[in-house]
């Protein structure tokens, strides 16, 4: 059966199913066309990868630009980085293409084992290294190969902060030393850990200091999201009132993934030529929380009693602005300001709390919106 649900939860289909990000797209294009590398940071599931794929779609018909995406979230070493980058290149430039043939010739000099997945047909590469220096030379060689190609290369590296965890402690300095001489590649360094990414690119003691333009991806404008949601429902012969959309955006905190998820379910629960009512939306909310309960209970297994209690307190506050305030500590029996600081930091380190910093204040929320709503309603 054809899936005609317009509220996508993964991947990228078309600009018609992509909401806003016009300013962000324009800025990325300006950077690319003016020889500027970009550091793109956003909380998880805010639509960072979608924006990159939207950028790639923008350049799809431009034969003078080729776009590559590599996600190194699960990379634990330079070898993993090389493997993922090489596979991305072969996926973009198959062996039958001119660039693909040249890249295969380069790879063969590294003594690789190249297989193709029996189901997806995508390349899988394994390279053996006799010394640590070989890894460095291989990675440098691949980047220099891309730099030598005729089209301008846009290379987006997702979860770039992972290189901090590589056992090869020279990775950051080596990459910076290599990249500064690559004039035919525009880099987009993406990351979801704001503190780590900021330190990498804004700390004068780090190799990548002041080498890129910093860009933070925040929530989509509520008015634009409202218009987008209404348009997609009506385009598919389903009505939805503005008040109902406002409830959806409030419940999901206008966080892209959670908004898309709720709209996807509401859309699937609504027949054609009918109008969505608030009861349907609330039923969809309950269904989503129920489906995610196994994950929520798994969180509990990984946390101490104090951490779980602290997360619950933050969820019930919706947004915590003063974690050391006496009223908050007493209301939820947290303990001392020092206890609150320790618990808050431990949950930030686990990516279970989201820190938002503005000119006016610093606030904290449970990072997983569905988890937050579940804690708020169940405990």
Distance between the termini: 40 Å
Secondary-structure-based class equals alpha/beta
Largest sheet: 5 strands, parallel
Strand order across the largest sheet: 2-5-6-1-7
> What would you call the quaternary organization?
single chain
Q: Enumerate how many helices there are, as a single number.
A: 15
> H/E element string?
HEHEHHEEHEHEHEHEHHEHHHHEEH
Number of E strands: 11
Tell me, rounded to a whole number, the average pLDDT: 95
Over the alpha carbons, how many angstroms does the gyration radius reach? 23 Å
Sheet-strand content, in percent, reads 5-15%
Helix coverage percent? 40-55%
| Spans where pLDDT lies below 50 across 5 or more residues | none
Written account of the structure:
- With 379 residues, this protein is α/β, with parallel strands linked by helices.
- The radius of gyration is 23 Å and the shape is globular.
- The chain starts with 21 loop residues before the first helix and ends with a helix.
- 33% of the residues are buried.
- The model has no long low-confidence stretch (mean pLDDT 95).
